[in-house]
Amino acid sequence: MSMLMASYQISVVNDTAQATPTNFQQLIQTTLQYPSGTRFWSPTDGWLLAWLESLSSTNQATIWVKIPSSIPPNGTYQLYMTQDSTLGFNVNYLGEAPQLSSSYAQYDNGANVFNFYDNFAGTSLNTTTWSNVGSSGTSGSTSGISVNNGLSLTGGDGGDAGHETWIKTSLASGSFTGPLATDVYENSPSTATCFRWGLTNSIPTTFGGGTDSIGEQIYNDGNWYTDTGNSSGGTQNQIGSWSSLANTYVIWGFEATESVVYYFDPNTHTQLSNPGQTITTTIPTYSSSISLSLTNGYTNPIYVKWVRTRAYPPNGTMPSVSLGTTQYSGELITVSVP
């Protein structure tokens, strides 16, 4: 039993003509009084799974809550946020990103919240989830790929594209069918590097475009590019210069269908407009792998803490969140909180 200190009603409003998928990851940003003691409850679905992505020095939190039920078109889903000073993270109803815990991934429940998730915990690559492609096509050296509570890719040698350092998911074909959203938490310590990632059917063989890739992103020399990546070589578009983000962990991400890709500003994680929205007939059929790489010609490393996929918001629009006033403030009400 636990003493509930405060409870807030939250309305999640789907203002589109399309229902949300079931098991939808809803973004909630708010200030928390007791971050580790926060829980979410729905009259429809009971206690909900949630994952704390970030927490500022002023307790401004970014949280993803998994909603089991579909929110109908122009519909509202009601839930409650409780805050209890006596509770802590419990790797289930509220977990947190791996780098937030004193011990790496100690309270990380991302695998329970997101459709696909890996935090590269431990000291070896999970070969059930990832294929260690190596640094020369599909059968080269893997010396530039290592895991130590996070992934590092090193060893670019200035050679041709066949010497890129790659890993890709080794899950069953169709694991990443769309529409979907996918994000990666990555650090390029130097602007003189080239981090490349996306959804691919095969390992790209040239810098200018892969074979059957979608949503591919390239962080190169402090600039950020997109690549439609198809068998004819693909098309790159520069969508921003973020040299200030060197030596900083950043969430790169996109939301995609087979015909449109929405990219995000890594500073604010808000959807980019032109050319953030790319509509093209050259985007191929959905891919079977997520790939992460350090491109040829760059010896400076890149580091990754986590990768995830989540449900595609209806019509590319995240439902809005309205936080109500405190329901119980200063009162002690005995409830069962997980």
Can you give a write-up of this model?
The protein is an all-beta fold and 338 residues long. The chain has two domains: 2-113 and 317-335, Immunoglobulin-like (Sandwich); 117-314, Jelly Rolls (Sandwich). The protein is built from one helix and 26 strands. The chain has one helix spanning 110-113; strands at residues 2-4, 6-13, 24-31, 38-42, 46-48, 50-55, 60-67, 76-83, 95-96, 116-118, 130-134, 145-147, 151-153, 165-169, 180-187, 194-200, 213-220, 223-227, 236-241, 249-256, 260-263, 277-279, 289-294, 302-311, 320-326, 333-335. Strands 10, 12, 13, 15, 20, 21, 22 and 24 form an eight-stranded antiparallel sheet that branches. The protein has a seven-stranded antiparallel sheet with strand order 11-14-23-16-17-18-19, with no helix packed on it. A five-stranded antiparallel sheet has the order 5-4-8-2-25, with no helix packed on it. A hairpin with a 3-residue loop joins strand 20 (249-256) and strand 21 (260-263). The longest helix has 4 residues, at 110-113. The relative contact order is 0.20.
Brief characterization of the structure:
The chain is mostly beta strands and 338 residues long. The chain is built from one helix and 26 strands.
